[in-house]
Specification:
The strands form 5 sheets. An 8-stranded mixed beta sheet has the order 4-1-5-7-8-9-12-13, sandwiched between helices. By secondary structure, the protein is an alpha/beta fold. It has 9 helices and 18 strands. The protein starts with a strand and ends in a 15-residue tail after the last helix.
Length: 338
């Protein structure tokens, strides 16, 4: 029996038409599907349109709309494919990884660098590959399928603005590749137990990301701690925090001990390790902050938003929740280092 897939449209380049003001999404999901002949050979596809937005305009309420839709249709379909713009696709895939946890059914996020109606486009291959992957009985969980690569939802980063190979898997291998319609798995996995899926629809929007730059005015920390529930600092190198910021950080964390503070690195690959240099080790020793290690910024942001919005995770359990691996988001960290 052919597996049933729900194709969910949200807009993005894949659904764009040319206008006098530039590309704008207007194709609906059923129109996208019409460009992919032969899908009935390997699956049955139904379509649904949630919105039609450039992904620049995607916000947490749209993540909730997607997750609620999948929860409502979860028992009806064997898999889900979400068509989405590329600019915020990595954020959406990361967010859905925490909003739809331990799913035995695959949730695929895909899109394109060129509209599906153009003669030369990556859209048709990406969409067909996504449907193929979603229809495979061994697929599960949230991931991105793009340019023949399958990337865990927490590991994707858009690294190119125009090329078809726009996305990379950061600090983690590709889960699989799809070549000429053939699925090759690099990391075979055991699917979660049926019924184990957990849905979460609310995300704390009061989480800010601050990128350190040389000479950054420490007074900005006062505003952030007064207005944020959580903050992620993109530090230098493996986790260096300048002395002139460390003093202000200690002061603000003393005033606001309930705030969730995470230190990431602004370097994309190989992760953080605050214990390497004095400028990181001393801060980590003296302050109760968290470290991203090999997590992506997109995953760290989404995970922090999820933890802060979940009433079942008290302040005392935030660190445990942050360091618990979800959908391959965190692998390389020392057991005694956090």
């Amino acid at each position: 029996m052919k597996r049933k897939i729900l194709l969910i449209g949200t807009g993005g380049t894949i659904a764009c038409r040319k206008t006098e003001e530039g590309l704008a999404p207007s194709f609906r999901s059923e129109e996208l599907l019409s460009y992919i002949p032969g899908t009935s050979d390997f699956c049955q596809v139904d379509t649904m349109q949630l919105c039609n937005l450039d992904s620049t305009n995607i916000r947490p309420e749209h993540w909730a709309q997607i997750s609620r839709t999948i929860e409502a249709q979860y028992e009806t379909y064997d898999g889900f494919v979400v068509c989405h713009g590329t600019d915020t696709m990595a954020y959406t895939a990361a967010a859905l990884s925490y909003m739809i946890r331990d799913s035995a059914r695959p949730v695929i996020v895909t899109g394109a660098q060129k509209p599906i109606s153009e003669a030369s486009t990556d859209a048709r291959v990406n969409l067909r590959d996504s449907l193929l992957y979603a229809a495979d009985p061994d697929s599960h969980g949230v991931c991105i399928v793009f340019d023949g690569k399958v990337i865990a939802g927490t590991r994707a980063r858009k690294e190119r603005t125009k090329s078809y190979n726009a996305f990379s898997s950061i600090n983690y291998p590709y889960l699989a590749v799809i070549q000429d319609g053939h699925l090759i798995r690099y990391i075979p996995e055991t699917a979660p137990t049926a019924g184990a899926v957990r849905f979460h629809h609310d995300m704390d929007r009061r989480v800010y990301v601050l990128k350190f730059t040389p000479g950054l005015d420490p007074s900005i920390l006062t505003w952030i701690f007064e207005n944020a529930d959580g903050v992620i600092f993109e530090s230098f190198g493996v986790g260096g925090i300048p002395d002139y910021l460390a003093e202000a950080l200690e002061c603000q964390m003393g005033r606001h001990p309930e705030k969730m503070v995470v230190v990431a690195t602004q370097v994309v690959r190989e992760g953080s390790d605050m214990t390497v240099y004095q400028v990181g080790r001393q801060v980590k020793r003296d302050l109760n902050l968290l470290e991203t290690y090999d997590m992506t910024l997109e995953a760290a942001l989404a995970k922090t938003m999820w933890i802060l919005s979940d009433p079942e995770i008290p302040v005392s359990c935030r660190a445990e929740a942050f360091y618990r691996t979800v959908n391959h988001d965190l692998v390389q960290y020392g057991a005694g280092d956090h």
